[in-house]
Amino acid sequence: MALTRLLMMASRPPCSLSLSLPSPSYKKTSRCCCHRGRRLLLRRAMPGACQDLSTITPTPRQQSMSQLERGSLLVGGRELLVRAPPNVTLRPAGAGVAAASRALLSSEPGRRRRPAATGWRWLSLFRFKIWWMMPATGVGAAAVPAETQMVLLESTIEAGSAAAAERGSLYALMLPVLDGGFRASLQGIPEDELQFCFESGDPDVQTMEAVDAVFINSGDNPFKLLKESIKMVSKIKGTFTHIEHKEIPSNLDWFGWCTWDAFYKAVNPSGIEEGLQSLREGGVPPRFLIIDDGWQETVDQIQGSRRSHPLSDLKENHKFRGETCKNLEYLIKKIKEKHGVNLEKFGVGIVDPDKIYEFYNDQHSYLSSVGVDGVKVDVQNVLETLGRGFGGRVAVTRNALKSAVAKASEDFMPREPTLQTLHIASVAFNSLLLGEIFIPDWDMFHSEHESAEFHGAARALSGGVVYVSDRPGVHDFSVLKKLVLPDGSILRARYAGRPTRDCLFTDPVMDGKSLLKIWNLNNFTGVIGVFNCQGAGQWVWPVKETAYVPININITGQLSPSDVESLEEIDGDDWNGETAVYAFSSCSLSRLQKHQSLEVSLSTMTCEIYNISPIKIFSEVVRFAPLGLIDMFNSGGALHNVSSIADSSATTIHIRCQGPGRFGAYSATRPELCRVDENEVEFAHAEDGLLTFYLPPSSSQDNLRHVEIVYKAS
Question: What's the pTM?
Answer without folding.
Answer: 0.88
